[in-house]
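Project outcomes to date are best conveyed with an example. Our students and postdoctoral researchers have been running inverse folding experiments weekly, and each run begins with a structure described purely in tokens. The record below, which covers 366 residues, was selected by the lab manager from last quarter's runs and is presented without edits.
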């Protein structure tokens, strides 16, 4: 497998060859995309997907995977904070690589139920590290990769970018719990010498995204002719990355990353939320005309802002580009077209989540 090579950049050497990979949170949005991506990318990989199947874990994201890749994929329902269960998994399987994604991930929910976030994101990460260390001892031919977020850095003013040396300054219980998990992963490297890597990534979008998050929520509501709730003035700026580009970045770091290093991952796509919603309305109008005067734009409704809402995130992704040769393949324009097409082609996937799980309900209002 070759990563995409950034023009003029040297290709970093392979430092680790994964064989048996434990993916945590593989039934969620990014995790399920990663399962599909890795199984297709490398026929020698065996994946063990450990997921508690919370409200956000969806077996439908992985339908057909076991049959498509016989003998190469297993699913285990387990809670990462359950120490005996996780320890038993490490003794049953010869895991040489952990890619840790399992988390409570929705900022609004973290405002209502912060302890769930501390339990899974902080305690769960510590349990995984502990179990991995017990199994691996001082081995260096193993990897623990932790998937984290740019939200740990807090909020930016109108200019500037988050780099790997930006001090942590999280605003929400979600980002604070992810910051805690990042510190634990680094501590396992410094204290025990465990070969770890961390990635801090910007907002992802693409298939299998739970419709409580901005892009799939807007698509679901627009298609149901429901209001499109924009928090506050909608001028909050985020960097957006197509989920498959993130999967390629994770694979690149696992194989080529330097143990102990952190890599920021971003799409060079800064957009205000209100811009995203407007663009989605335009794309939907082209692909599935609303037939209403004012089109989907008529549904845009400003609602009270999220408490503690960060104003701007922007990523300096030069390290992963310069050191490892990764760069995103999709622009926002190509990625968003693929994304809207996917949701239009998978109405049953969306309807099940909205009907059974109340996915589009607003949370986190004080
Ligand atoms: P998600 O909410 O869609 O999926 C999380 C998965 O973790 C679900 O399948 C859920 O069942 C599982 N899970 C939750 N608690 C668990 C527990 N205690 N034990 C085992 N499994 C559990 O999240 P996502 O958007 O796919 O994010 C995945 C990871 O990437 C998270 O760590 C998140 O912080 C990070 N991240 C996400 C984004 C983004 O834009 N979505 C950006 C940067 C980083």
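After processing, the design step wrote out the following sequence:
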């Amino acid at each position: 497998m070759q990563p995409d090579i950034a023009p003029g950049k040297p290709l970093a050497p392979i430092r680790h060859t994964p064989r048996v990979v434990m993916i945590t949170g593989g039934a969620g949005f990014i995790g399920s995309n990663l399962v599909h991506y890795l199984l297709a990318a490398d026929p020698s990989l065996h994946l063990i997907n450990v997921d508690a199947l919370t409200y956000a874990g969806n077996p439908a994201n992985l339908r057909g995977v076991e049959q498509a890749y016989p003998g190469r994929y297993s699913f285990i329902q387990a809670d990462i904070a359950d120490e005996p269960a996780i320890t038993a998994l490490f003794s049953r399987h010869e895991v040489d690589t952990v890619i840790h994604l399992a988390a409570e991930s929705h900022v609004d929910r973290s405002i209502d139920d912060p302890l769930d976030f501390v339990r899974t994101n902080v305690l769960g990460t510590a349990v995984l590290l502990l179990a991995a260390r017990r199994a691996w001892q001082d081995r260096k031919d193993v990897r623990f990769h932790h998937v984290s977020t740019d939200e740990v850095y807090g909020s930016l003013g109108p200019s500037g970018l988050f780099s790997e040396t930006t001090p942590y300054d999280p605003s929400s219980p979600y980002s604070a719990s992810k910051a805690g998990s990042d510190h634990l992963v680094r501590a396992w490297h410094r204290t025990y010498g465990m070969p770890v890597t961390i990635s801090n990534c910007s907002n992802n979008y693409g298939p299998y995204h739970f419709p409580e998050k901005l892009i799939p929520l807007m698509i679901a509501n627009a298609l149901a002719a429901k209001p499109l709730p924009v928090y506050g003035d909608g001028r909050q700026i985020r960097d957006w990355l197509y989920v498959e580009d993130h999967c390629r970045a994770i694979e690149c770091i696992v194989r080529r990353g330097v143990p102990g290093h952190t890599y920021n991952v971003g799409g060079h796509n800064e957009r205000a939320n209100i811009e995203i919603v407007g663009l989605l309305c335009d794309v939907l109008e082209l692909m599935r005309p609303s037939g209403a005067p004012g089109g989907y734009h008529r549904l845009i409704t400003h609602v009270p802002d999220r408490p503690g809402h960060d104003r701007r995130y922007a990523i300096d992704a030069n390290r992963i580009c310069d050191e490892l040769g990764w760069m995103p393949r999709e622009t926002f324009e190509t990625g968003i077209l693929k994304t809207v097409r996917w949701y239009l082609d998978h109405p049953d996937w969306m309807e099940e989540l909205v009907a059974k799980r109340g996915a589009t309900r607003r949370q986190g209002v004080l």
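The longest strand covers residues 143-149. The chain has a mean pLDDT of 94. The training component of this project remains on track.
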